Write the structure tokens for this entry.
Amino acid sequence: MILDVNGVTKVFPGQKKSKTVVNDDLTFSIEEGEIFGLLGHNGAGKTTLVNQILGLLTPDNGEINLLGESVIQSPAKARSICSVQPQSQVPLGNLTPKQAVTLMGKMRAGNKFDPKRVDILFEALDMVEWANTMGERLSGGVRRLTNFCMAVIAPGQLVILDEPTNDVDPVRRRYLWQVIRDLTNDGTSVILVTHNVMEAEKAVDRVAIMHQGKFLAQGTPSDVKSSVSNLMRIELLLVKESVDMEIPSWALSTYMNGSRLVFSINPATVLSTIEWAKAQMDQGFVIDYSLSPTTIEDAFIALTSKKEVV
Amino acid sequence: MNTLSHYKYVFQMQFLRNAGFLVFMALIQILISIGIVIGFTYLIPNPDTHSILFLATGAPTIILIMVGLVILPQQIGTAKADGYMEFIRTWPVNRSVILGADTTMWLIISIPGIVVSSVVAHFMFNPGYDVSWTVIPALLLIALTSIGVGYGFSYLLSPTASLSISQVVVFGALMFSPVNFPMDRLPEWLQTLHEILPIYSMAEVMRASLAASTFDATLGNYFNLFIWCVLGYGGAIFILNKK
């Protein structure tokens, strides 16, 4: 086991004498080579949790162990085990991506640093053309990619990435996920902090959904989804707004918006639903339809929109 | 991995990141220090050699105060505001190594100003320099005090507060501190204040090593600097390690 977090609670003093519980009795662990997603709204307490794992903050209660050693007792060790891409842009100033990533690699790995890895990373992320451009002149996306490379050039056993795909274009996002996946092949574990839920679903092995300092759900993406609902949804595009068409009796909740018709169904009725939809198309009522499982975003919204946190 | 190689890479990272700014600042320091030596001779009509020696041996102290207590706090303020400080705190190196590397960087940008202004003053006015061997340790002690105190208050206080302090320091050091003129010209309460603050001691120690046959520094001056230096760096390390 790489990381073991047990009952971690962190309270910040708020305005006047009030107190804000930023992390409330959080427990989870991460295995070798695993990608763990930490999903939550802004202000859910994700970054505070990460800062405690790094030993930058001390929990008010609970324990954090990295490779079996207490982070609270040896924070310096924690910083050499973990490498981090912070949420805020790291200003590079006059440094070029190549200089910044190389220096970070040397600082982390010393003599074991392999300069070829810088080129491999830049190629994998298709950013070779900016390798020797001064940081101040780079676009936000390339700077973010450079920050990412600084975190993974000589990864510790645990890499913590806080919103790594912000500002990055869709094509390079895919390259970035591939680089993250490759990291885990060498046994490196990854904590991915994000509010970009859809993207995370494809990338992570396990997720925790965090809301107001608590974990609302934890497990594989499909576990989390099925904890909310295991329904399917069908979305149809109608030829015009009011079509005289019969909605199947097994449709669970129907929702109509202009010429868009959405309803959810039980997975057992998928086949008959497709047949029904095809028939509607043949009759010329429906232009197009699509069938999809509940996404983790649906689950995320369902979980976090409940106002009461238990 | 040893401390020395950490120091090397941290220094390279910090220095290259700020390279443009640092070169520019070093040039500005050269101009300011020459400006002090020459400019003040316009303020004082017919200055005698003694007053010029005061100015010429005061200029290096002003440079070190500018770098440590004005430019450095501004840099730290920016680093705090754009999150760079938080990032530094995640590096797998000892925090004192970071402070050490940064101190070296600030030392490097103040030295050209000190050397150039002293050479210029010597050839223009020949005010009677008598450089003692103590110049190296004295310079280091003064620089470390100034840089250490700068770190201490800029880590401890908010960017706005430390910026305000640095503005007061520029004005106070130039006009109301016994750096470019003797202490006895100041009102008594300011004299008492300067016995405690490090600026007077910096000026005294600097003078005693640049013109050893004219000026003396007391043991108290060295002691004062030592205390401020320890307080400054101690405060900075405390804040860096604080959770």
